[in-house]
Amino acid sequence: SKLTNLGHLEMTWRSRVHFHPLLVRILHKSRLKYYGKPGKKMDMPYQAYFEVADGSGMMSMVLWNSLCPKWYHSMKVGTVLLLAKYAIKSSYPFKTHPTPGDSQMKRFATIEICLNVRDPPTEISIIPEEMVKPEWGLPEVKYRFMTRSELDDLPHNHSCDVIGLVTFVGRAERARKREHSEDFWLYRWAHAIDGTSDQPFILELFATSQPDVFERIHPMTYLVCTQMRVMTENPSRTVYLTTSNESQIFIKGWHKGQPYTKDAKVKNFIQWMESQSEADQIKKTVIGGYYPFPRPPDSFLKY
Asked: Which InterPro entries does the protein's record reference (predicted)?
């Protein structure tokens, strides 16, 4: 069938009701959002954002309601989609935006693709990677991996990806989303090392839409965290990383086939790990317990 592209959609969407099919690759994926409220009768009030791209640029795509439980876990970063009978509308102005791995890629920010179960009923097809043809011109997924030695030079709120060997993982803790709210965020602290510094990555890992991974983080696993935000804790200037709305977390058992396995810094980390003694590293690992961060001063006088 005749295809269109994202650039052409942005120029013509106001003058059309029906759109030609789209062939795009998923570059970023948000956590699953539940927007149900008491008194509102909706069967499945779910929503998830994706950033998808073709040869012309990148655009947001929104998966709505009952399509979320059906498709969310199948739509991974790197997945190629063929979309038909989708809707186009003006972008929601207050959504978060991931930092693209390719800074040269054009972003179409005025409109977004909506995938609905009706009005119109979207047709979604996943194209297996082995069937994807180079002539389609779909961009590869690119990352912004940073080593621990580079981290201290990054500005506050900078976005990056990291890989490391877990040396500490704390218990799951809860924090109120808002004061006096009955909704909580679930998170845990972790440390990971990559051999480039004496200091570990300090990671504040919120439970994203990957509960199976979040619950199984343990010492001695290779941990990959994408779209992490750099946070500088004043006045100590301690740097740590926290998850964003588009963060993805991977541990052993989930790495196979992920696009980041081709990244040079990931390969360098694997080489460093192969030179290490597993018995020596195990002696340095810790699990569980309360992790006070930022650490309190040594004495009451300093406090």
From this structure: NA-bd_OB-fold, RADX
